[in-house]
Design a protein that fits this description.
By secondary structure, the chain is an all-alpha fold. 48% of the residues lie in helices and 3% in strands. Helix 4 packs antiparallel against helix 5, helix 9 packs antiparallel against helix 14 and helix 20 packs parallel to helix 22.
Length: 524
């Protein structure tokens, strides 16, 4: 008796069986019972099947292997009759077979059907259609497909993920112009429904060699500069900001030339911003190593795609500036009192600059970097270099020991915050107001929103200075009973109940001594 041969029809790569044809030298009457038995067993073991004959897992697998098995992917798409299958097929044919005249006609028919569903279907979104405009006729360009993709995803008629449609990565690798469909068009929650890149969302292949982990780490570090802007931004507008960031990240992978050019001057992200205050400069020093690492890896990535070393550097800078919020706010000239102080220039060089007539105007250099939030006056920066204070005092009246920053913080508060006893002592002996309090400057476009306002220098010292600074402020008449606008006093700050953690400078013994000192004063 001959062996029974089982031939798989429409088997996929992972071994799933969709249908069988059984051949044998035996009479079909003998084979048929075996055939029916096998079909019965397979029906019990099969995966959930779509109405058009493919399981979700099979379809996803075909799309994910599009880069290496485009014919199988096309076959899978042609077996689907829903809008998802049609949109995937439209983009596939546009990408892989657009030079075939018969296929172009098929693309036009596919697009017409999809556009009709987008504009007239049950799930249509009139606001979306009005905002984006009616889809254009197909003209073989990427641009003629953008509105179709945006409307179908934005109205949730075609989704591959909980809220949006992800364009297969294999398609974007060949047609990076389709990234325009992922552009941020709306603010608020609507941004969540915009199309996305499958290269990021694990659909339709992957990009090898892109240093995504290093770039995401740099983005995380940049929160120290932007104040975690996304988390603190009010309302749903942050969704559109995040979408724009992710769009730029995908452009960095696929089409870096389409990103906004990096600054012509060779600043690093947040470099000019870093000169606005001591805090900024310290944040910049923490961000920069992450930037340098991501820059080197991106340069290597672009070189592997045939870019020259010079071009790779420009594209890498372009990418990193585009994904970091507020990273470029103008050029910081190297020769100003502010930059010399923060860059650690020798005292002689600072004295020489202070003697120049234009040294008093150095704040104007940074005007483009702080039109909405302002920046710390020069004395706030100088307290980190106490040896420079007597030299800079010659600039009076422009050098004011009680100069206020945008939330009315004084140089004495800054000196206490950084635990500089020498600067605290000099400021107190030169007229600093020991009981000045912080407060919001409502004239700013973006007023500072402090969790704790009405703080004094003693509050700052209790949070982050040593016992000598605390004693110096108290000896100068600091109000030990002062409370911030949350009702927290100096002892609360010493115990870590203020806006920051427990004072890292004080030992437990010193903390107890400081609390005892304040308590005795309050008891009088």
């Amino acid at each position: 008796m001959s062996a029974v041969v089982v031939e798989c029809i429409n088997c996929n790569g992972n071994g799933s069986l969709r249908h069988f044809k059984i051949l044998s030298a035996l009479n079909r009457k003998v084979v048929m019972p075996v055939y029916l038995f096998l079909l019965g067993v397979l029906s019990m073991l099969s995966f959930p099947v779509l109405a058009d004959g493919l399981t979700d897992a099979e379809y996803k697998s075909a799309i994910d292997h599009m880069q290496t098995e485009p014919k199988d992917a096309e076959m899978a798409m042609r077996q689907r009759n829903d809008l998802l299958g049609k949109l995937d097929l439209l983009l596939f044919l546009h990408t892989y077979r657009h030079d075939e005249s018969k296929i172009v006609e098929e693309i036009k028919l596919l697009k017409a059907a999809l556009d009709d569903a987008a504009v007239n279907g049950e799930g249509k979104d009139d606001y979306l259609i009005k905002s984006l405009g009616a889809p254009e006729p197909y003209d073989r360009s990427d641009n003629s497909l953008i509105a179709t993709i945006q409307i179908l995803s934005g109205s949730a008629q075609v989704i591959t993920h909980p809220r949006f449609y992800a364009i297969p990565c294999a398609i974007l690798l060949r047609r990076s112009g389709l990234l325009d469909a992922t552009a941020t068009t709306f603010s608020g929650n609507r941004a969540n429904f915009a199309p996305r890149s499958g290269c990021h969302w694990n659909r339709g292949g992957e990009i090898k060699g892109f240093p995504e982990k290093s770039i995401l780490y740099f983005m995380k570090l940049s929160e120290r500069a932007d104040g975690n802007f996304l988390a603190t931004h009010e309302g749903t507008n942050r969704f559109s900001i995040m979408a724009n960031q992710m769009e730029n990240l995908e452009r960095a992978k696929l089409a870096p030339e389409s990103l906004w050019p990096a600054p012509q001057y060779k600043n690093r992200p947040y470099e000019t911003w870093s000169y606005l205050s001591l805090y900024n400069r310290r944040a910049f020093s923490q961000i920069t190593p992450g930037y340098n690492s991501a820059l080197r890896k991106l340069e290597k990535y672009y070189v592997t795609f045939g870019r020259s070393d010079k071009n790779a550097n420009e594209l890498a800078r372009r990418a990193l500036f585009s994904i970091s919020i507020g990273s470029d706010c103008g050029y910081a000239p190297p020769h100003s009192l502010r930059t010399l102080l923060l860059d650690g220039a020798p005292l002689a060089k600072i004295s020489q600059m202070a003697s120049k007539k234009d040294s008093r105007q150095s704040k104007n250099i940074f005007a483009s970097c702080s039109p909405t939030i302002g920046f710390d006056p020069l004395p706030h920066v100088a307290v980190a270099r106490p040896e420079t204070l007597p030299v800079l005092a010659s600039l009076r009246p422009s050098f004011d020991v009680n100069a206020r920053n945008p939330f009315n913080k004084t140089p004495l508060m800054t000196a206490a915050q950084i635990n500089s006893l020498e600067s605290v002592s000099w400021l107190l002996s030169n007229g600093a107001d020991v009981n000045a309090v912080t407060g919001i400057n409502k004239k700013l476009v973006w007023p500072y929103k402090l969790k704790h306002n009405q703080r004094t220098a003693l509050h700052y010292a209790a949070a982050s200075a040593g016992l000598p600074v605390l004693k110096a402020l108290i000896a100068a008449g600091a109000n030990i009973a002062a409370k911030d606008d949350k009702g927290l006093g100096v002892i609360d700050y010493l115990n870590g109940h203020g806006p920051v953690n427990l004072n890292p400078v004080l030992t437990p013994k010193q903390r107890s001594a400081a609390i005892e000192l304040i308590s005795k004063g309050l008891a009088k």
